[in-house]
Amino acid sequence: MELLALSLLAGVLTVLSPCVLPLLPVILAGSAAESGRRSAYLIIASLAVSVITFTLLLRGATALLGVPTDVWLIVSGSLVVFIGATLAFPALWERISTSTGLNRATGELVDSSAKRTGMARPLLLGLSLGPIFTSCSPTYGLILATVLPTSFAVGFANLLAYTVGLSAVMLLIALGGQSVTRRMKWAVDPNGMFRRGLGGLLIVVGLLIATGVAKDAEAWLVERGILGAVVLEQGILDQTDTGVDEPGPVRIDGGETEPPAFLVQQFPDIDWQSVDPAIFQAVGGGPPRDGIPALDDPAFVPLAQVVWGDDVQAIVLDDGVNGVRVYPYNILVWHEIVNDTVDGVPVTVTFCPLCGSAIVFDRTLPNGTATTFGVSGGLIDSNMLMFDRATEGLWQQSTGRALAGEFVGTELALHPFQLLTLGDVRESYPDARVLSADTGFPRDYERNPYGDYDENDRFLFPPSTLDERYPAKLIMAAFVVGEQRVAVPWLALREAGSLEAEVDGRAVSLRVTDGELVVRDPAGRSLPFYFEMWFSWAVQNQESGVVLDPATG
Amino acid sequence: MKKLVIGIVVVLVAAVLAITLIPRATAPSAPPPASAETAGFSERYQPYSEQALAEAGPDDTVVLFFSAAWCATCKVLRDDIAANQQSIPDDVRILLVDFDDSTELKQQYDVVAQHTLVQADSTGEGIARWNASRSLDELLATIVVV
Q1: Which residues partner with A84 through β-bridges?
Q2: What's CA A255's distance to the chain center, in Å?
Q3: Cβ atoms < 10 Å from Cβ of A339
Q4: Which A residues, 252 through 271, put their C-beta within 8 Å of a C-beta on chain B?
Q5: What is the ipTM, given to two decimal places?
Q6: Over the stretch A527-552, which tens digit does the pLDDT of each residue have?
Q7: Burial bucket for residue A281 (CB in 10 Å: 0-12, 13-18, 19+)
Q8: Nearest C-alpha of chain A: how many angstroms from B44?
Q9: pLDDT tens digits, one per residue of A266-296
């Protein structure tokens, strides 16, 4: 309700602002030239209708955005010139009115008992101004930007109030102009010099509007700091509780600004006000929270008992004096996360089937607590969102970054591992122990629930961007040097055996021996790495990531 | 009859004048809306041009400010930005777009009213749109995190 009153006031105040400049002389001259109050009312009424119509057409919708501003200036200006011409040359107007029946028709439309007073001209005059009137009122801006898009009815009501305020003052001006004319008896004669003079004035003003000079004059005033009532109105607007929220930014990149409902429902303890906005892009992958069951207390069997073929890939961890632990993909694909303790370090072994990302993290939170991770059911660009059971925070697997919860913005530390085939393992580590198929969950580990997803070129969840430098599902070895994220086509690197490169001015050395990768920084330290499908790495690092290719050096 | 002819001639002259004068005002070579107050642009705050956009770094945030010379509230923001250019972060570029002359940009970002701000990435891809920031601080605070 307060906004309605403010809209009305804003309409009144607009008359004191530069943006009303082209309107004033037209209204003043146009109504002074007509006899009878009726025509003044008519000019203002049609002005109001025209302002509302064109506001909705040009400012409330995008359909006519392609029409350059100049076109509206020419249309409006030409109409005003034409009306000026009819006043300056009355015989012309008589002729047009009679030959087209325009006068009679509009006269009947407005009032069937209308005398022979011309109704068409005032009507046309008011209408002509709608296309060029662009309000400079901040309240009007608020109505258009915020109120109209949320509720057309409320927005329209406020627009109406604004126009009533504007029209009321305009009417006073029009009637004032007429009363001055009436006192001057000589001015009433339709063929008198006074009316002709007003006609000439309208022609000039029309030309000024059409050529853009009128707008330039407004700009001239504004540039000199003559802002009229705009500053005052802004002050009132700031002080008033309009019940309308400050207009916030509207996402135009398809980016969501609300957390997905399924996550809100399944993670009720998260403070959604302080999350990484990346989480708003999350979609439900199908299975709910823990629908894909992480393994917490994994059992292992000797490699000799394992029947899976040599070509099955596996994450391999160094377990110190106990040899190596092997986590085959055919089991990981069903569980995605294995929380384990390897060589005394609490780790979480993660695998996201939809983006081929195999990553091992230290599962110690920044506060020192060793947590366990579960599968949230959410995906961002096909990549798994994990949650930690200690704080219920959400973490993106491919970056190890917390997107929601207590530790937003922090990253889990990478833990070193190798990606080998069971064939490699059988050769290099005959004493290895392998994640047991006896997981306690009835799953068919012979079967891949994603079929040939790794090899075909289709997606279950199409990525937001697709970098076509490499096939989407090509596996990359990825690591970080300093701040720079780096990816290398894994099979090509395996083939090449070694790669020396410079990243950000630092020499990095990559060696693959018996399928095992070692990445060393300039100081000779071994860097942790992980693996991920190209499209998924590219989504995260397209702009700033560096790709090293053994084929191109 | 003579008057009628004169009337028609006047209208025609008006239309011809209008049409011939307009293109000159909006020719592509026309300088951006520079003025005493908005002069003194810097790398972080300058008139829009494809070149100015191309100069933005890959991770920079670009804010297009659709401003009209006759728009009083735009003027307030223009002055505030110009006076506080040094407080624009290194990775933010504010490009001033003339609302009256930029039909294509208005269509690209669905800008219907003057004093509209459009956040884009360094390629010009639109990210967010809002209206009527009053100060540089308010503008910077409204930039959405991508």
Answers
A1: none
A2: 5
A3: 22
A4: 252-253, 255, 257
A5: 0.72
A6: 999 999 999 999 988 778 899 998 87
A7: middle
A8: 21
A9: 999 998 888 888 898 898 988 999 999 999 9
